[in-house]
């Protein structure tokens, strides 16, 4: 079975290695172009005030990498006794490399799982920093505000659509049996890169019910739902197809 991996450039290697070990061939077609953004005075002040926040929520591996690069410029030693939360083992591992022991949900890898963490239950009058990319979902911040918290965003990267020719895109799609996608914007970008209806005959494996609904709206009739976005969960979903 041929698997098309669509993670951003630099984030696909381990997944492809595990796919090979599991007996699958894979190729890579990045569907998100990730670039850092210039911070303004408000963002800089948020970093300088890092020790004033009750906790920090890091949304993705990109947010961890770019966010910590920025924080390191102002905080040679991180504040102590601060709660760090994230979704997924990939982001947790990046934070751990910087000495941060982040808490992740045991129930899954979605924003909804994060919201249900006990650390976010009693947060009235607390201040929380969310490190993310530009244009992310508002559900998390909205929920925290409803629980009485003050929320500050630190947006450290932007997502764009890579540029490929129709021929380049179709070559990868034609080769593949299964397409792995863990981002709504990546799904949208894929349908932008080709108008060929062959795309919707391919099996697409997505990492959340939200993405399953997006895939159906875009044209896939039967997207496959993985238990989550980490490597093992995505591979388990593929193995269940065989």
Plain-language structure description:
This protein has 242 residues and is α/β, with parallel strands linked by helices. It has a domain at 35-159: Rossmann fold (3-Layer(aba) Sandwich), CATH 3.40.50. Helices cover 38% and strands 20% of the residues. It contains 10 helices and 10 strands. It has helices at residues 13-21, 41-48, 61-74, 89-97, 111-115, 139-146, 166-175, 184-193, 209-218, 231-239; strands at 2-5, 25-28, 33-36, 55-58, 83-86, 127-133, 150-160, 178-181, 203-206, 224-225. The strands form 2 sheets. The chain has a 5-stranded parallel sheet, sandwiched between helices. It has a 5-stranded mixed sheet with strand order 3-7-6-4-5. α1 links the parallel β1 (2-5) and β2. α3 (61-74) runs parallel beside α4 (89-97) and α8 runs parallel beside α9 (209-218). The longest helix has 14 residues, at 61-74. The model has no long low-confidence stretch (mean pLDDT 94).
